């Protein structure tokens, strides 16, 4: 343990020389080898040592091998570098450095509130509201049964850390999930509380029941039509009662303990409903210059039931959005796992083998466009925050339309700004709105 470096880190916190970046930003914010070498040449080895909590005195002096566990960019301390150090130190059995990083998060000459503001958002991500009814349990994330012994749990945690650590070729999103899982069940008290059904304080009031309509802020909302998530909720409730058993009373169909036992297919229906509702709230913030139609049928049969498809509700577009930046066709998706792009299509461990969401959306958009005598200018698959790790990813052109996969927090800004060279204005906007309104039939 490099005690001088620990004191230097405390001094940086006291002076406010910290970076409030996100947990996964360290791979981008850490200095490059060239920048590090240039800094080292200018400032020397003594100052270089102050930026590393680890020191191996068996290695020669004035060599990089002597120093490890960097916590900043040689100018400021990065809070997520400190979080990463804590995990790595625990993973490789450096108990003194692990303890030091924990103390570092707490110690400062400033007030405790200031320390929390500077450092804690990364370390408290386990308090985030679960993103999805499909979210895996901490036991599933660690790859053990709920009946595993404490020793089996500890070994599984260290194994998963090694497998997912970005420094060893793992994925940052999965590494984060492993850390949050351990925070929920890593100690005897935490595990007992989790097994009793207790959850972090910020999730205690969370329910997957439909939210009451509400207005946020005073800005006029986008005009909207239809019932986002309604079809999926109806299917969820019908099939839930069939699963529980006819005649069995279900006081709360959204009880987390009930949902934890429900088949994945049931939870997926609920996740899709929640995804559509969350997207609808994001689109409402676009303002009065935009119009949104939710759950728009595309199969031409307004009276019949929707057909089944690997995509879920075949024959509908989740959101049709019209504004100065164009006419957008959107599907809101939640598979409970991150997805990636392969040859213009989305793939991932949770997608069915024959599931082709981008192709499906393009087909539905063509059907509706033909009926309404309009042309969609963009196709968008909306996924939860962290669903791709990229924010906005281009899928290329699909049937002549730009296609993208977008994490929900980036959606409203993307639609407001639009895609360069794409848009609708003047009398054309009014004409397209009239045609869409006349053709729209809702689920």
UniProtKB/TrEMBL annotation:
Coiled coil: none annotated. Residues 195-227 are annotated as: Disordered. Residues 195-218 have a biased composition (Basic and acidic residues). It holds the Pfam family DnaJ. Residues 137-198 form the J domain. It comes from the Bacteria. Gene3D superfamilies: DnaJ domain (1.10.287.110). This is J domain-containing protein. It comes from Pseudolysinimonas kribbensis.
């Amino acid at each position: 343990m490099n005690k001088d470096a620990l004191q230097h880190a405390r001094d940086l916190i006291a002076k406010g020389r910290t970076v409030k970046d996100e947990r996964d930003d360290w791979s981008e914010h850490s200095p490059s080898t060239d920048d590090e070498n240039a800094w080292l040449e200018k400032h020397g080895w003594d100052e270089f040592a102050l930026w590393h909590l680890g020191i191996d005195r068996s290695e020669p002096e004035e060599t990089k091998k002597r120093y490890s566990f960097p916590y900043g960019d040689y100018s400021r301390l990065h809070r997520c570098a400190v979080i990463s150090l804590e995990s790595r130190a625990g993973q490789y059995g450096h108990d003194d450095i692990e303890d030091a990083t924990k103390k570092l998060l707490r110690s400062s000459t400033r007030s405790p509130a200031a320390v929390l503001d500077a450092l804690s958002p990364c370390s408290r991500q386990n308090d985030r509201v679960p993103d999805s009814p499909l979210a895996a349990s901490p036991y599933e994330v660690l790859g053990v049964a709920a009946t595993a012994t404490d020793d089996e749990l500890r070994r599984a945690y260290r194994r998963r850390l090694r497998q997912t650590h970005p420094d060893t070729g793992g994925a940052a999103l999965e590494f984060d999930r492993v850390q949050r899982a351990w925070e929920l069940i890593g100690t005897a008290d935490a595990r007992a509380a989790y097994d009793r059904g207790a959850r972090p304080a910020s999730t205690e009031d969370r329910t997957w029941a439909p939210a009451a309509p509400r207005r946020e802020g005073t800005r006029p909302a986008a005009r909207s039509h239809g019932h986002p998530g309604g079809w999926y909720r109806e299917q969820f409730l019908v099939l839930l009662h069939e699963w529980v058993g006819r005649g069995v009373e279900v006081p709360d169909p959204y009880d987390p303990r009930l949902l934890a036992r429900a088949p994945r297919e049931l939870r997926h229906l609920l996740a899709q409903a929640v995804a559509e509702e969350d997207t609808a709230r994001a689109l409402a913030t676009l303002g009065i210059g935009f119009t949104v139609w939710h759950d728009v049928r595309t199969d031409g049969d307004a009276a019949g039931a929707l057909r089944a498809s690997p995509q879920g509700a075949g024959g509908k577009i989740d959101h049709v959005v019209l504004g100065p930046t164009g006419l957008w066709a959107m599907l809101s998706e939640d598979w409970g796992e991150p997805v990636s792009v392969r040859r213009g299509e989305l793939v991932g461990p949770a997608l069915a083998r024959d599931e082709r969401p981008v192709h499906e959306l393009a087909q539905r958009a063509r059907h509706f466009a033909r009926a309404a005598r309009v042309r969609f200018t963009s196709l968008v698959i909306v996924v939860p925050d962290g669903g791709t790790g990229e924010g906005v990813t281009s899928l290329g052109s699909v049937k002549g339309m730009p296609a993208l996969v977008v994490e929900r927090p980036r959606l409203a800004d993307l639609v407001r700004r639009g895609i360069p060279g794409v848009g609708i204005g003047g009398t054309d906007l009014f004409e397209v709105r009239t045609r869409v309104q006349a053709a729209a039939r809702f689920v």
